[in-house]
Every structure is written in structure tokens, then in C-alpha cells.
Amino acid sequence: MSEIQPITLVDLLLAALVMVALAAFCRPWSRKSASGLLTSMGRMALQLTLLGLVLQAIFDNVALHWVALVSVVMMLAAGHEITARQRWRGPRLREFRTGLISMVSGSFLLTLLALLVIIQHDPWYHPRYAIPFLGMMLGNTMTAIALSINRIQEGAHQQQARIEARLALGEPWHRAIHEIRRDGIHQGTLPVINMMAAAGIVSLPGMMTGQLVAGADPATAVSYQILIMILIAAGATLGILLATRMTVRQLFDDRERLRLDQYRKIE
Amino acid sequence: MLKSDTGRLCAGPQARGTTTKGATDLLLDIRQLRVGRVSAAGLGAGTGERVLLAGPSGSGKSLFFRALADLIPWEGEVRLDGTSVHEQPAHQWRRRVMLVEADSAWWADQVRDHFPPDSDPPLEALGLSTALLDAAPGRISSGQRQRLAVLRALARAPAVLMLDEPTANLDETSTARLESLLRDWTARGGLLLMTSHEPAQQRRLATRFWQVGDDGQVREEGP
Fold this sequence. Notes:
The complex is a heterodimer of chains A (about 270) and B (about 220).
Chain A: H1 9-26, H2 31-60, H3 64-84, E1 88-89, H4 92-119, H5 127-158, H6 160-168, H7 173-176, H8 178-198, H9 206-213, H10 218-250, E2 264-265
Antiparallel strand pairs in A: 1-2
Chain B: H1 6-9, E1 28-35, E2 38-45, E3 50-54, H2 61-68, E4 75-80, E5 83-84, H3 90-96, E6 97-100, H4 142-154, E7 160-164, H5 172-187, E8 191-195, H6 199-205, E9 208-212, E10 218-221
Parallel strand pairs in B: 3-8, 3-9, 6-7, 7-8
Antiparallel strand pairs in B: 1-2, 1-4, 4-5, 9-10
């Protein structure tokens, strides 16, 4: 591990400069994309620097309550991120709750399974394992859930007449929205399926890359990667199933009426 | 609250219940309904009747039908055979009080998939070929779709059928066939509520007239 090459601030600035140049080329086509790329890069650098400081502090002082606190903050942020990514905005609190519940179930429970049953490090909550695992789970589950919810809300708006025609013929709400939920599940699982299909052939996954750079032997890096990918796929699937169920139900009121009037489009 | 001519409500071909006045004589009983700017203080209609709902475009006829089908939020009370809409799951209500909107949508690949599996829709009665069942809904004419939409609803055996402009895209022959089918259906005990802009059609078909007034109030009118 000691042979890891340090990265200086100059190195980081050089990489950032490349990004700034590319954003400048992007600007004539889409000012929104150019500014989005730059602000999200800045945000990412800030967030990761803060995380680095927090992790250092936690590594120096391993305690369950600190790990729990960081985990809660990460999950709340991910819940907020899911609602922020939607093209349709419904009641905020309800959407946040949907994102949070589905993500906590998808990521948190499977991370606990990994830490307690599979890795069994002592202590099981050691931040060296707990935080990266939860982080990777949250990141992937969040994307999957956000895609699914988006697809369902988009589908419901596009196919409003079809859904209402079925309701008018006496179909229960879950039948009338069945195909749209199916599309939402499909959309959410697609990145996970692609990620697993491409792993090791097209792409070298992040955790494995990190471990190899840090000097771990390939066999260990590979087994960790396989584990995390299975956990991500399982977590995303669980999260998607819950999120799609809650989202489709929220499209209807207690009289099974399609209530798109509570949504507005985010430009 | 209800109109005093309750007796007439039972005058349909297969009127049920007793001749005593009261809600039990009515199949559909609408009280203090309010949706948007449309309201109905007290309206009723019995089995076998064909109610023509008239009113200028934009007066709220479709809104009124959507409220009766409980597809949009509304206030008031609607009862079917004495049972309130609020006392049953919404989809069960809509199975009995069914709405076919003016340009009703289709969702499956083939027309056939929109009918209950064991149904045998009387396509010939409306001058439609059975081959249409295998067609994609997007590939047939709007007039064919309109007639099939009525059959699609009838195949589900509702008690009340609401049709919003069902003959808007139809020629004279097709209109006559559809009217004949609807007459037969009401003669077997169905209650039809329908909008139409054609005075001649209203006179041909109606056993009862409801009119949306300028104030948005739906009232019963004389024939």
C-alpha cells in the first residue's frame, strides 16, 4: 500500500483545467450543460474534500455513533438528490419520503448484510468498510431509483388518456398503470444490468481500480468487486421495486383517480 | 330535492321497483353534485332510459360525466340502486357507471386485447368486420374506433353507460346502427346517458333531457 503515488494540488488543477476547456467548447451548444459541468465539478471536489476530512477524523476515532451519523447524512442527501433529479415535481415531502424509504431499504439493509454476515470485520462497523460500501450502494441505488421514478411520472403524463380510459372501464388503478410500472422497473434496472455485463470487459469498476491502485492483489480486488456488484444489483432492485410501488400509488388518490394535477413540470 | 315526476322515472321499458316515490325507484340518483362550475341539485333516471345531455361546447358536459364516473374530484352524492358511490371501491363503481369519452384511448397492441377474454362483441350490428379485432387500434379509422369503444364498454356489462359524443365521426348509416344498438341495450334494462349536438338525434333517441344552463346548473328539461 505504501507505494501509492501521491497526487498534488497541481495535478488536480491540471485535470480541472482540461474540464474547463471542454466545458468552454460545450458552451456554444448548451450553456446549461457547460455551467452544469463546471458547477458539479466544483461541488464534487468540495464534497469529496469534506468527506476526506470527515473520514480521516472517523478513522482516527472509530466509533459506531460517528459511522451512524455519517451514514444518516449520506442517506438524507441521497433522498434529496432523488427528488431533485425528477422532471416532474409533486408534493415534496411525500417524494422525499419515497426516495428515502426505498433507498434506505435498498442500500442500508444490504450494506448491513455485507458488513455483518459476509465481511465480518472487527468491529463490523469499521468506517474503512462501512462508509465506502454504503457510499457505493447509495450512489448506484439512487441512480436506479431516480430513473425508475422519472420514467413512471413521464409515462403517466404521456399516457394519461390511456390510463383514464382503463379506469373509466372499471379497471383497478394498479391494472391501469401496470405497463408503466413495468417500464419504470426496466428503466431502473438497465444501468445495473449494463454495469454487470460490461464489468471486466469494457470497464474496470471503481472499487477494483481503487484497490489495485492502492496496491491490493488482483484476486482480492476481484472478489470485493464481485461482492459489491451483487450487492449493488440486489440493493438497486429492492429499491426500484419499493420506489415504483410507492410512486405509482401516489399518482392516484384514494378514489383511484389519476391525479396529475398535483405535479408540475420542472424546466 | 328530486324532481316531482319520479313516477316517470320508472316508465322505461324495464322499469324496476315499486311505483312508490323515492330513491329506491331510481337507478341513478344525483344530489347536490358540484364539479368546477357545473352543478346538479337533483336528477334521477331509471333503467331503460336514454338521457340526452345537451349544452353548448365548453359548458361542462364532459366534466359532468367524468364526475359521475368518479374520475375527478367532485362534491355531492350519487347513488346507484340506492348504494352511494362513496360506499364502494371506485373501480367497482366505474364497472357499473361506465364512461366512454369522446376520443377514448386504446392501450394494447390489438383491438381484441381491449375486450374481456370471453366476450363476443356484436360487431356486425354496427357494420364492423370481425377482422378489426386483430387490427392495431392506431391503424383503423376514428369512426371504427368510436364504435368499437362503445362495444368495448358494453362487453363489460355496465348498468349505466355514459357516451360523450359517440356519433361525432359517424355517417348516417353508422349512426342509425349505433342508435339501434343503444335502443336494444336500454330495452334490456341499461340506462344510457349521452351527449349530442344534433337536435334531430336528441329527439330520435331521448326519453329524458338534461340541459347544462348558462349558470352551469344541469336541469331536467321538457321533451
